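Sequence in, structure out. First:
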Amino acid sequence: MRAMGKTRRMLSVGLGGVALAAAMTAPAQAHGHGHDAPKWDVKDTKTDARFRGLAAVSRSTAWVAGSKGTVLRTSDGGRDWKNVSPPGAAGLEFRDVEAFDGRHAVVLAIGEGEASRVYRTEDGGASWSESFRNTDPKAFYDCMTFLDARHGLAVSDPVDGKYRVLSTTDGGRSWTVLPNTGMPAAQSGEAAFAASGQCLVSSGPRDVWLATGGGATGRVLHSSDRGLTWAAAESTIPAGDPARGVFGLAFRDRTHGLAVGGDYRAGQSSPLAAAVTGDGGRGWRQAATPVAAYRSGVAWLPHSRSAALAVGPTGTDLTRDGGRTWRTVDTGSYDTVDCTPDGACWASGEQGRVARLAE
């Protein structure tokens, strides 16, 4: 969404795998502060770029993408970071990165017209190919997701009253704009937020969800056919303003999902900024105890059916009961969070901040 940035147009304990999930789902200590609360281990990236794009591959490998055309990759758990930014991209704003391993990744740059681009690497960032450049001045791409190594989607804010969806079937080598006949009409003022790379997420081979804000209500759109047809559902997260709505989504399977958001403006309250679904996004329930403030990123803990983390500029919140109640466990600033099957959780944000749940 064009609401991130200077104007509306620009916007951890030694635990791994099952042990991490067990700790996160253990009963909380008195007053919600337990010895098992997660702790972030902040890594030195030697840059001040803001990393709203994050792809966690494993405990050792992660990619981040952000401002000033910056892309970094680590293969040693964050001790060292290699600058693998695409040549000539310094003027671009990368807001999403999807990585399949330490060598194959796709990054999305946002912006109006030709500022929206997609790059792809097959050699760990040693070289990049530009696989898409938007030529429609009315389009502004926000987020991207891959359902598997071949099938991926990217979404633009509404063009002529409907969200525009870009599709790849060859791992990001080429892209095609999908027909919009199966896309519901957008609300007046509605768009997606390019805040964390989580406004478009997927689970399994066919299911995709799109988070929205800015319109009268914060909505979540769902497609079960890789973006050809969509159904819209109202979330319980307030919108009604260009700065408010649903910012991030996470689904642990095709039915159980979490939504977070709020008002991204500093100092503005964000009540009711978390919601949960158990039916694939057809209906959303307000969290009984929502996140403490605006949150832009959310991720399920590895190997857990009930624990998840939500992050934002003012802190990290933890749920142990599938999103019904949340408590703040850290006050550091992060924009996005991602967890891996081998038990690692990573977060990234402003001033080059990247962290992993501490050893």
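Second:
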Amino acid sequence: MQFDFLIIGGGVVGMAVAYGLLRRGQKVIMLDEGDDVLRASRGNAGLTWVQGKGVGMPRYAELSLQSSDAWPFFVSELSERSGVPLEYSRRGGIDICFDVQEAEARVDSYRKLQASSPYLARYFQWEYLDRQALLTHLPGLGESIHGGTWSPHDGHCNPLLLLRALLTANLKMGLSYHPGCSVQRLESNSVGFKANTLGGTFSAERIIVAAGLGAKHLSPMLGMSGEVSPVRGQILVTEKMPLISQLPTPQIRQTDNGSYLIGDTHEHAGLNRDVTTSIMAQLAARGVRIYPHLNNAKIVRAWGALRVMTPDGFPLYESSKVYPGAYNINCHSGISLAAFHAEELAQALLHDRLSYEFSEFSSARFSKIN
């Protein structure tokens, strides 16, 4: 069979793009290295988030907001196609400010972000709330918390169920999926592109590198940027506790099964995914500071995972100038942007308009940083 697209990478980013292409009648083959690789899709907290996105790049904030608005339909359709519930909720979210300096900096950055974009000025909703006002949204909030920003756009899901739903739906739509397939080399040929693996050679008319940190060595083979680096995050998981109607935050959220996820660390530790006692202690202390009722909760699990970061932290969407038909898709917001990746981005890829519609996300901007 001749395939239209060969996708390298089976995380949420690659799966969401594949979902969008398959829904548009494309024949897609996907090579996925395996569950033992540095997969960010299985290690994140599952936030579908708008707050904080795009400070310094308004277009990214606009995409995040548009994706958030598209998520309810995306979830409904994906759940129907796959039969997998995503535990998705969009009741708004809170980004906690621990002191007055953090609060003032947050408010200032959000005001500047809105002022930089007519779209955000009109549609991005947020409000700073002091601790007393936050109690409505975060019952049980600790007395030492200064306040936080509230936005109705934010939500959360179960990222493991999202990945399972995408894979299930994609297979039903005809995805040719090859797990445990490590790509050694990418090349162009007379009919498009081929990927050489230890298990054989795979080819398609066009190719998408959505390999996360693997793009560092794969993308340059096709004349595209490999400027990505890992940033470690650690997460603590408590025992299951009675459900409380609390909005999610980047610092802590309660899942549908009652467990609390406590995280939001940023560490430059190379490819090391280990958890460390010092960070776990800091997370536990911060969790209890936010919700004192967790003081006696048991920690049942902890993990470390690696975010995929570009030099400026914003998404990378680019077409190869050397090999037309090759694309590089990379970001650390694969959950939040999943609805966008399955719709507008897939549409741009299908019609080869990535460099026109999303030119500000190409790697050309990195030369200004360096």
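Remark: The mean pLDDT is 94.
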